[in-house]
Each structure stands twice: as C-alpha cells, then as structure tokens.
Design goal:
The complex is a heterodimer of chains A (239) and B (112). The mean pLDDT of chain A is 95. In chain A, 28% of the residues lie in helices and 22% in strands. A 6-stranded mixed β-sheet of chain A has the order 7-4-3-2-1-10, sandwiched between helices. In chain A, strands 5-6 form a two-stranded antiparallel sheet. Chain A has 239 residues and is of the alpha/beta class. In chain B, strand 4, helix 4 and strand 5 form a beta-alpha-beta unit. In chain B, 43% of the residues lie in helices and 18% in strands. Chain B is globular. A 5-stranded mixed β-sheet of chain B has the order 1-5-4-3-2, sandwiched between helices. Classes of the chains: A alpha/beta (239), B alpha/beta (112). The interface between A and B is medium-sized, with 15 and 16 residues.
C-alpha cells in the first residue's frame, strides 16, 4: 500500500524552527495535511521524539524517531531509528560530540524540550545548531550499528548538503538513498550526478513552521504503516 | 579602519547594516565551515565567506565579527538577511574570490 510520508520535520527543539512546532501541533498538522507517517528530525537531538511519538499515535499517524545530524563536514544526514530507545541512545552520543557552545536564544532561537501533551520541560542549553565531531563515514557506521538508516538531506541546497560541501556522492560512502527539497531540479541533478539514478529518491519538507509540513504528495510503499516496515523498505537494496 | 573604509577601499556592496558602517575592523578571518569560524574568528574581524546561510548571521553575532563579506557573489538567504537586520550584522558582497579580497584587505591594513 502507498503511504504518504514526510521524514524531515523539525520541532521547537530546533532553534531555527517556530516555537509553535510543538509535538501535538506538528502531529495534528501532519494529519490535517493528509500524511500517514512522519519522522521527527531535529538538529542533533532526539529529545522531542518521545512526546512526538505519543502525539503521532494519538493523531493516528505512523511515527519514525529521527534526527538531522550535522557531521564535521557540515553535511546534514537524516537518521532514522527502529525505536525510541536507540534514537535516544544516539542522541546522547551525539550530545557529547557537540562543541561546548551555549545557545543564545536571542540570536539562534529557543530550543524547547517538551513532554507529553506539550508540557514544557525546559530549554536545551547547548547550541544544537553546530557540527558534531563525527565524520560522515563514522556517522553512517554508528547509525547502522543501531539498526537505523541514514541518507544525505536536501542535497540540492547550497549549504549543509553533501553535494555543496563535498562535491559528489561517492559510492564508497555507502548511501542507498538521498533527499531533495520540493524545489529540486531532478533532471539537472541526475545530469550532473548520474550515480544518483542508482539511489532511492526521498522527499522531505524540512518543515520549520507548521505551514511548511508537506502535503500528501510523496508516498512510500509499505505493507503496514509501521516503523519496522519503513526500515525494511529503506534497507531493501533493489527498488 | 572602519567597515565603511573597507567597503570603499574594496568596492563592496552593502546588503544590510550600512548605517552601522563606522564599526572598527581590526582583523580578518576567511572560512566557510561554520564550526571552524565559530571557534576561531575574533571580535572585530571582517569575515570573508561564501556561506550566506541563516546560521552565518548567528556565527557573526556569536564571534562579534565586524562584518560579513560574501565573496564570489555568493547569495544571502532571505531569512539570513532578515536576521542580519534584526541583529545589527553588517553584510557586504563582492564578486571577487576570497583570496583576492583578503589580499586587497591586507593592503588596506598596511596603508592604514
């Protein structure tokens, strides 16, 4: 069955996202938009995944705990995990790889941690919008070690993307998928980087505001709208 | 040397912050990886980069850079422009590459 998805959504934990991107708001907006399954991918943290999983369940949506990791090459990777436990374990690991820079909310924005029912739990002190001291190769290994799946985010963007920062997706990097934004010129992308044709194309809204959450445009083919099926789908080598 | 002197000397275009151009420039940092710039640029530096992302404005504020100079005609994201205006960050632009701009800036410092 085809399920409408958006695997690139930020919550109010991401400094650059709106404060009204609370777990309940974003889950309900995703439901209204007609989506079936979403992932939460805040910058370098999964701390809002537990509350968002609950909110997604209540809204009748499938949920994938995720993160948008910023590697030391300043390449953004969408990392998806098979369960909350492993997402949070990765989140803790990544927290230790971030530089000791305190967030300045007036410059970067708030980093709000929320509990169930949009309960305010606190502001994350360390700046999450930094690069982690982990290189691309190790990041992929670490995510795969946790039975997760990762792929480069918004490769058509001029900043924080694998193509802009490293020039190309080398097959040795081991990626079998990549993400583009809604504005991507796919023909131009495939013409300049033919290797991409062999990889799975993923779409993500990279929503930082409620209005940015994807409408029901892009689907993935799953048996059930479940986390396990998503990872099985992504891990399939032939498609 | 002020940002205004720098802009005139290197023929830079103001994208925002022209009214703040009396700010003193005391040094220069060149770099595009924000994590490097964040921990290395110094207060008063003119920061030469091609990175016109929203986070560049945060990095300039955090390091107290005198201004951002976008080289190679690099674009400034609309969101970044808005944030720069809110945070009183001066952003300028040139079509010259970073190296040439840095060399010309160094010559200006020598004359100063």
């Amino acid at each position: 069955m085809e399920f409408f998805y958006d695997f690139h959504i930020h919550s109010c934990l991401s400094a650059c996202a709106d404060n009204d991107m609370t777990p309940k708001n974003l889950a309900n907006m995703a439901k209204l938009a007609g989506l079936d399954i979403i992932a939460l991918t805040d910058h370098n943290s999964c701390l809002n995944c537990p509350a968002t999983q609950k909110a997604a369940e209540e809204a009748g949506l499938g949920f994938v705990p995720g993160m948008e990791l910023c590697t030391q090459e300043e390449v953004h990777l969408i990392c998806l995990f098979p369960d909350l436990e492993r997402a949070l374990s990765f989140s803790e690991h990544v927290g230790g790889l971030l530089p000791e820079i305190e967030n300045k909310p007036d410059i970067f924005g708030d980093q709000i941690i929320m509990g169930e029912n949009d309960n305010f739990l606190g502001n994350h002190k360390k700046l999450l919008n930094s690069a982690c001291q982990i290189d691309l190769e190790d990041a992929v290994k670490k995510v795969e070690g946790l039975k997760g799946f990762c792929y480069p985010a918004h490769i058509d963007r001029p900043s924080y993307s694998l193509l802009s920062n490293l020039g190309d997706i080398d097959p040795s990097m081991g990626f079998s998928a990549f993400e583009v934004t809604a504005k991507a010129d796919l023909n131009a992308l495939y013409a300049s980087h033919p290797h991409l044709k062999k990889l799975r194309l993923m779409r993500g809204s990279d929503a930082h505001t409620l209005a940015d959450i994807s409408d029901a445009f892009h689907t993935i083919n799953l048996k059930n709208n479940s986390l396990k099926d998503v990872l099985d789908y992504l891990n399939k080598k032939t498609f | 040397m002020t940002v205004d002197d720098l802009a005139k000397g290197l023929n830079l275009t103001f994208l925002c912050g022209k009214e703040l151009a009396q700010r003193e420039v005391t040094g220069c940092y060149c770099g595009d990886l924000l994590s490097f710039v964040m921990s290395r640029a110094k207060s008063g530096d003119a920061w030469l980069t091609v990175m016109g992302h929203l986070n560049s404005i945060g990095v300039a504020a955090l390091t107290d850079a005198a201004c951002i100079v976008l080289t190679e005609n690099a674009p400034l994201d609309p969101q970044a422009l808005e944030r720069a205006m809110q945070n009183d960050i001066i952003v300028l632009r040139t079509d010259r590459p970073t190296y040439e701009t840095a060399v010309a800036l160094s010559d200006l410092f020598k004359e100063d």
